[in-house]
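Appendix B. Raw example, untouched.
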Amino acid sequence: MSKQNIVIYLLTSFILTCNCAFAANLDSIIKKSDLNKNSTIAVSVKDAKSGRVVYEYNEHKLMNPASVLKIFTMKSAYDELGKDYTFQTTVYADKNNNLYIKLGADPSLSTASLKTLMSNVKENYKKQVKDIIIDSSIIDDKQWGIGWMWDDDTNSLLPKYSPYSVNENKIDVSITPGTNGRMPEVKTKGDYHMSIVNLLKNGNNNSISFERKPWVSGDMTYVTGTIKSPASYKLPVSSPQRHFINTLNSVLSSSGMKYTGTIKTAPVPSGLNKIASVSSEPLDQLLANTLKNSNNFYSEMIFKTAGGHYAKSQGTTQNGVNMFNHYFSGIKSDKPVIVDACGISRNDLLSADWITSALNKIYGEDNSEEFISLLPKPIEGTLSDRLLNISLKLRAKTGTASGISSIAGYIDTKSNKKYSFAILIQNHAMSVLDVKRFEDELINEIYKM
């Protein structure tokens, strides 16, 4: 055997030995965990540059990814729309003194944005307004995803999404304890009326729950539990369209704008004069919020809009899914199943092997660093209190739902390798904190490689 072949043989043996020891350590962590007794754990680790498999465990099992899915739905939207894309809300005027508001599915649209828009309209348009006509055709009117849970209707992390969207379709609720034998008080802020059934009691702690009973009334919110000290909450509205119109009327009134007719809905005819518009931040900044803070509302609005752009038609979740499937069509792994953008649905299924293959596809593209930088690192967003010891070495997206935990992303190891990794855990009954600690133990072991 030549000297060169001996060197290659020794290096190969060394690498295999290291990989075997590394695999044994990960195997030991998994098999000693209480999670491994009655939950499903899947892990995949690959070299991000070469695609070489470094470690795998249940890597082909299809599992619920939770919010890890956002990495891939938002990457397909990012490539479709471009990082500089902005969501536009625009006002036009016709010859009959009607104003048309063309909604842009802007997930960040706020009362302040509408005030700016209407202030510009008032400055640029001096005629008496007859009707205000809203064009909501940019995306469809389906407000929740397939397989979402009805009892999440009051979950502030899952507001309904709609072309009629402002303030993330949530209102502020303040609750104060009662004094002198009186009941606690529940107040909603803003112009949206919501029927509140106040069943709260004064107590020794704050333990407050919100519930809607759609079989009784879709817009009646029951507040139960106990309250000791004042508290504030964000509560999703049940009717985004009514919420938007109420907010718009309030903005029109505060800006001194009046109209003599009514508010209607219709597409904007061609050839109208543009009066004013308001823009969102560029897409890359919106995605930073979406990925770092795991914003479900943003992800669904962006995905639908990008799907419409891809299909050259109205934005729908299905058009977004078609865009996603086209973007990741070249991956040779277990076929993914997705029905929403944010990963909330239990119908979403990905394997750990597919996730690392998709991460490697992203890493191999020219704009990879731009997009990867939008993922949270430790000290940011959902990683703000995790893995701080390797904060400069990790970019990853977490996922959490009832009985589900996941994390996936990129890690720069101590030996200066870049790995893609995915950890999926399903059907666990442990505390979220304990499950995240288990994930962190695995990631720290991967870092040592």
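End of appendix B.
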